[in-house]
Input
Amino acid sequence: MHTNNITQDLKVGDRFPLTIKRIGINGEGIGFFKHVIVFVPKAVPEDIIVCEITDVHDRFLNGRIHKIRQASRFRNPDAPELANEVGGLEFAHINYKDQLNFKSNILRESLEKYKPYAHDKYMIKPTVGSVQQEKYRNKAQFPIQEIDGEIRCGLYKTGTQELVDLTEMPTQMDLTMNAMRKIVQMVKDLKIPVFNPENKSGILGMIVIRESVEFNQLQITFITRSPKFIKEHQLIERIQKEIPEVSSISQNINKEDKAGVWGDETKLLWGDQYLQEDINGYLFNFSPRAFLQLNSLQTDKLYDLVTEALEPNQRDILLDAYCGVGTIGITMANKVKHVYGIEIIPEAIEDAKANAKLNEVENADYYVGSTDEVYPELLKDGKEVNAIVVDPPRTGLDNKLITTLIKNPVNKLVYVSCNPSTLAKDLVRLTDEYRVVYLQPVDMFPQTPHVETIVKMVRR
Output
């Protein structure tokens, strides 16, 4: 591959003036130096900066802001200091209303890149803003480590495995942050052995806290590297005494040396098996590993918009694919004839069945497995489906599922996406059989480049 002559002459550390023209699909600023594309994190369109090269590639450059010569009108002058320290605040330097516009642009950029059929004619509605722009996250996974004899608990420094000790986090709810700091103090007092990345010793690796907004309760999960959890009884006693909001304490055992990934075994140590949350007037139980949208207050809005896109009626037999604990299907159950939910995580399906019962929903059936395998089985068994909602993880839809959706097209398909890139890629195939009516971006993650998108599709 021949090297671009321009990048050949450049090296890491070189600096040059740069005007930022647009925003990239990962939320970074994009400029051009002698026709070569330059990606600069934390830079905003209309910024004029001095850029310092951090990486040289054949066809593009990575840089960082050395100095801002002229700040863009989109810049937020009151960005929190922490934004330069930890992840999760990649857009905090941008005014909120501009964040919403840039999210629509990120969606457009992704469509531009993958070019699904007629993408330039798609109607992209304005991004729906979040009720709360700060303190909206209902869950946090805090790694805890012993480094040079001191205990740190917080989040990793952007792009590294270096742990920043956090006392505050603008996007996290107060109750969660206060509980985290109290628990860290207890761990120190009780001298519970904490993971030490240097010599791979210690037991406790992560503290996971989930908060119910409706009921003001906390679900705590300790992720440990061995089944043995030293001094767990003293710890539980102190938590009960000092953090009355805690209603549930579990332990998840992860023997792998991957810091901070969930292991297969979760056991309840004390309190309720579930945390309860209210979504659009329905009650849901969540076990520690179950998926719940991170922005509780905005989830009501999201599901209203999903319902609006599907236009459910009493003749509809709805497939809720990647159903999690049943949230979308259950909130629509009274508007349709029947709901089938499919989810790969067995505990989530147990939760979904319990949630259907809890909300007196009698027209829903749930199946464990991957949607691309279970859905064709249902069709083989003579079950009919004429409306589908898919809400896949960041990796998008499984290829085999797309094939099934094309082979057995339904009248109405709603795609709820948390990743514009995989969405655009999936639309390339789906548009063979479905027409895109509109895309509705929704901001579930203020201060970050993440954007949730609802796509309304109908059969061609």
Observations:
- The chain has a mean pLDDT of 95.
- The CA atoms of residues 418 and 452 lie 4 Å apart.
- The first strand starts at residue 15 and ends at 23.
- The longest helix spans residues 96-114.
